[in-house]
Design brief:
Distance between the termini of chain B: 54 Å
CATH topology of one domain in chain B: Four Helix Bundle (Hemerythrin (Met), subunit A)
Shape of chain B: elongated
CATH architecture of the largest domain in chain A: Up-down Bundle
Oligomer: heterodimer
Mean pLDDT of chain A: 91
Strand content of chain B: under 5%
Structural class of chain A: mainly alpha
Shape of chain A: globular
Structural class of chain B: mainly alpha
Low-confidence stretches of chain A: 1-20
Number of strands of chain B: 0
CATH architecture of one domain in chain B: Up-down Bundle
Number of helices of chain A: 18
CATH topology of the largest domain in chain A: Cytochrome C Oxidase, Chain A
Strand order of the largest sheet of chain A: 1-2
Number of domains of chain A: 2
CATH superfamily of the largest domain in chain A: Cytochrome c oxidase-like, subunit I domain
Low-confidence stretches of chain B: 1-13
Number of strands of chain A: 2
Order of helices and strands of chain B: HHHHH
Number of helices of chain B: 5
Helix content of chain A: 55-70%
CATH class of the largest domain in chain A: Mainly Alpha
Largest sheet of chain B: none
Radius of gyration of chain B: 20 Å
Chain lengths: ~625, ~190
């Protein structure tokens, strides 16, 4: 029964497309179940959050870089968060840091990156009409939307948004007496993240089901583009780790609002003894980081996949070590679940446990290095075409190397005693996971923009955007390593209170100016993005001469993606510059029988199978 | 897939599982992770000290029996659907729903029993609070299972559940067995770890 129903559905989809898809504005563009529209919704929401999250970092960078300057001019925007002396309110500074982290990690680099590209590329690259469940997909976006609205509202309430750091460690986050942000702001944070988890699970279940069950004829696992592999592993990590965060948040909610003592032990606050006894704040850290660490791979792995695809296409070379790439993704996936306690080396955890987690953490260097090596060897002697997407992909590799190297320092439990919670950590993760994933996302937008909107983005603006961002990001985060090695702690409102750090006044001002330039450069991208949607040059069907299936669709793929039958896949996606071939690329849907000039000996056998097909 | 131009030598149906069933299994995986987190939090907390030991409510034996029987009736209903005995499907599903509500009732009664033992949800001993969390969160999922059962029951009233239309009842059965198994795990876990 199953297969007949599925077949009917597919046939309908074909017919549907023959006469244009009907529906009104609301069903087509707002409550749409089409994966391409949902992807664009994720992208636009992600961009919206990126502007807010980035803007927040500008405000606290001003505070750090120019602690003596007046912030009076921000009063129209921030109101009473500017104190009567024209300074930024210290508690609001903490709120800004917290919201910057939350927004960037969850809303921009998880929903905006994974949500956009998993939704857009999975059906197009595996050859499916849509996701396994369009309705669930729509639900996933709207849960994310509601979660966004709740978080957005929390920014504007009187007591301010959550301010205990994006890791929301209790007791700080559990006690409203501790900091004003731990009142209503924290409650809204928890509600928002609970909704976000539901959204991620709905999305992830859909991604995995689609990849496993809806591949087109011939699309075996060994012919899948690396983008799909990375989305697959990303969704798996999310499915396994987000429920744990839900559990942690649940216990925190009961501690906050019902009076249980899971995380709260004997506490005196403002001269008053709390009734709670015997709770364990470290328990929360264990639960949180069991999600929190895999989360950084949820952020970076889609960017890896996008980069693999773009680097191979624009080097006009097959990806080096296709299987090694998959195995290293798998290795990262497995290891991501057994390293969480390296965030807790100085939390009072058993030092013996610390040494085990140190060992496991350093093992992650191996699959990571394999990936970097393969990117570099793919570039090696390629006919490199420097499109903006390619530049951003190479930028990702660069950030991943320079940020990854410092990972070896901080992953070491002894060295971490000095570096923990300093700007060294800030520099490390902003390079290796923040900027790298951000570059992956931008690269993806430049590369798939012609498919998404049927028009090209402007290359010159892309180059300017790239160089300002690339140089700017290094100017921001490289100096931070020095500030961190000197021992300056992150999240502090003002470093000028300590004489030991006054030598860093100039450096901090430099970092802030660089950050402002980098942020400003993103508006070049925004202009390019929105201008090109309406006024860009019309895109050809396959502008990058790429092999994957999405480029076999019409310029503006309609509902159902392919007007006729879904193409069959005969070969892997990386047949670039194959010796003997007429052109330097052979798309996945070209059978071997049509390319006798370039077939390798083992591929000749494939032709016989194709012949048998034609007889049948 | 059934059309004539099947390409020999190529993987045809990639995985012979229904996408919705597959999605249900993935959903089950995420619930497993939630309870894995909660029960491991329990163990970590226990090792931390400040632990109150007490007797598990006796009524848990009854509730365990009820949910086991409900799994049986669910399964019988599925077998009935396979043999197209439409009347039995309805009755057995109905009994399963009733047993589901009975289970929720006994779980609620276990809370009163705990209170009589002076084990409260809001206390300084996490051991007590955890039992309420386990039963409560499991109960929430069980309510979702009952809703699923009611949907299947509604379809069976319209004679839409039969041997040629088994997907719904199969998924319902998978979920219900899982929820029963989950409770069994929690019960055994508590028996050994209190």
């Amino acid at each position: 029964m199953d297969s007949t129903v599925v077949n009917e559905h597919i046939d309908h989809a074909v017919e549907d497309h023959a006469h244009e898809h009907h529906g009104n504005f609301i069903t087509n563009y707002i409550f749409s179940t089409d994966h391409k529209i949902i992807a664009k919704q994720y992208l636009i929401t992600g961009i919206f959050w990126a502007i807010i999250g980035g803007g927040m970092s500008m405000i606290f960078r001003l505070q750090l870089g120019f602690p003596e300057a007046t912030m009076e001019w921000l009063r129209p925007l921030l109101g009473d968060w500017i104190t009567s002396t024209g300074k930024l309110d210290p508690e609001f500074y903490l709120a800004l840091v917290t919201m910057h982290g939350t927004i960037m990690v969850f809303f921009v680099l998880t929903a905006g990156l994974s949500g956009t590209f998993s939704n857009y590329l999975i059906p197009l690259q595996i050859g499916a009409r849509d996701m396994a469940s369009g309705f669930m997909n729509m639900l996933s976006y709207w849960f994310f939307f509601v979660s966004s609205v709740v978080m957005f509202i929390s920014i504007f309430i009187e007591t301010g948004p959550a301010s205990g750091g994006w890791v929301i460690y209790p007791p700080l986050s559990a006690l409203p007496q501790a900091i004003s942000g731990s009142g209503l702001g924290m409650t809204l944070w928890l509600v928002s993240i609970a909704l976000f988890i539901v959204s991620t699970l709905l999305g992830g279940i859909n991604y995995i089901t689609t990849i496993i069950n809806l591949r087109t004829k011939g699309m075996s696992f060994t012919k899948l583009p690396l983008t799909i592999w990375s989305f697959f592993f990303t969704a798996t990590i999310g499915l396994l780790s987000f429920p744990v965060l839900l559990g942690a948040a649940l216990l925190l909610i009961f501690d906050r609002s019902f009076g249980t003592s899971f995380y709260l032990s004997e506490i005196y606050i403002a001269g008053e003894a709390l009734p709670n006894m015997g709770g364990s704040p470290i328990l929360f850290q264990h639960l949180f980081w069991f999600l929190g660490h895999p989360e950084v791979y949820i952020v970076i792995m889609p960017a890896f996949g996008i980069t693999s695809e773009i680097i191979s296409t624009n080097s006009r070379k097959p990806i080096f070590g296709y299987k090694a790439m998959i195995i290293s993704l798998l290795g990262i996936t497995v290891l991501s679940f057994v390293v969480w306690a390296h965030h807790m080396f100085v939390s009072g955890m058993n030092p013996f446990l610390g040494s085990i987690f140190m060992l496991l953490t350093l093992i992650i260097a191996i699959p990571s290095a394999v990936k970097v090596f393969n990117y570099l060897t793919t570039l090696w002697k390629g006919n490199i075409i420097f499109t903006p997407a390619m530049l951003f992909s190479i930028g990702l590799v660069s950030f991943f190397i320079s940020g990854g190297l410092t990972g070896l320092f901080v992953g070491n439990s002894a060295v971490d005693i000095q570096l923990h919670d300093t700007y060294f950590i800030v520099a490390h993760f902003h390079l290796v996971m923040g900027s790298a994933a951000f570059f992956g996302m931008i690269a993806g937008v430049y590369h798939w923009f012609p498919k998404m909107f049927g028009r090209m983005m402007d290359n010159k603006l892309g180059y300017i955007h790239f160089w300002l961002s690339f140089v700017g990001i290094y100017m921001v985060f490289f100096p931070m390593h020095y500030i961190g090695i000197a021992g300056f702690p992150r999240r502090y409102y003002s470093f000028t209170n300590f004489d030991a750090f006054s030598t860093f006044v100039d450096l901090n001002a430099f970092v802030s100016i660089a950050a402002l330039i980098t942020f400003a450069a993103q508006f070049i991208f925004l202009f390019n993005f929105f201008y090109s949607i309406y006024r860009g040059k019309k895109a050809p069907e396959n502008p990058w001469n790429s092999n994957t299936l999405e480029w076999t669709t019409p310029r503006n793929p309609g509902h159902g993606n392919w007007p006729g039958e879904i193409p069959t896949v005969y070969r892997w996606p990386y047949d670039y510059s194959k010796p003997g071939a007429k052109e330097d690329f052979i798309p996945q849907n070209i059978p071997f029988s049509k390319t006798p000039e370039s077939n390798l000996p083992h591929e000749v056998k494939e032709i016989e199978k194709e012949k048998a097909v034609e007889k049948a | 897939m059934v059309d004539q131009n099947i390409h020999i030598g190529e993987p045809k149906a990639t995985l012979s599982m229904h996408p919705k069933k597959f999605a249900l299994w993935l959903f089950i995986v995420s619930i497993v992770m939630l309870f894995a987190a909660l029960t491991s939090a329990y163990i970590v907390k226990q090792a931390d000290g400040n632990w109150l030991s007490f007797e598990l409510p006796k009524i848990f034996i009854l509730s365990t029996a009820i949910i086991m029987i409900s799994s049986l009736t669910m399964h019988l209903s599925y077998l009935a659907a396979k043999r197209d005995s439409l009347g039995r499907i309805k009755w057995l599903l109905f009994i399963t729903v009733v047993l589901g509500f009975l289970f929720l009732l006994t779980q609620y009664m276990s809370w009163s029993e705990l209170v009589k033992e002076n084990v409260f949800f809001v206390s300084n001993y996490a051991s007590g609070s955890f039992i309420y969390i386990f039963t409560g969160v499991h109960g929430l999922h069980l309510i979702s299972g009952i809703i699923f059962l009611l949907i299947t029951f509604g379809k069976s009233l319209k004679a839409e559940v039969h041997s040629k239309n088994l997907v719904l009842i199969e998924m319902c059965m998978t979920y219900w067995h899982f929820l029963g198994g989950l409770w069994l795990y929690l019960y055994v876990f508590l028996l050994f770890n209190l």
